[in-house]
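input
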Amino acid sequence: MSIENVVNKIIELGIDIGTKDAVKSALQGIKADTALVDDVYIAVKNKLNLKAYAKVPKNERALFLPQCLRNSQKCIAELTDKGYVCKRCGACSIPKILDVAEKLGYDTYIVPGGSMVLNIVKNKRPKAVAGVGCYQEVEEAIAKVSLLNIPSQGVPLSKDGCKDTEVDLERIINVLRI
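output
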């Protein structure tokens, strides 16, 4: 069963998905692979937030990228109180993402961790947020911004770790264009 089918089934049945444990129980209940819990949790939250996110004009949204997307050996970005400032050296995928996001009107941030995301959200008050990160960071961010009634869309890293990570460029660009 594909992740999309699992997500649709969980939503269709009205199963509680408030926590990751609840999603794991839901997966067991519909006899789906529980190893998919992280992907399904984020996909369900994204789907539930999609309409509200889509209604927010792009120039009232913020994009958060993790600093771990930077090339740890070649990056010349400068760390400021608003995160890293990309110098567009071309050593990683960040400039490609920023180019699309900024043309669409997003405020963009390259952050060293989730606490900075929350501080920026509280200070800047975007009406919606998109973010990239490891599963844990995306899950925590979705939960925290939902408490502030801010719709979000999260994209997990396709290669994680704490440095030299990767994200599916097409996937994040599609989220930005919603």
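quick obs: Helices lie at 3-13, 20-29, 37-55, 94-104, 114-124, 135-147, 169-177.
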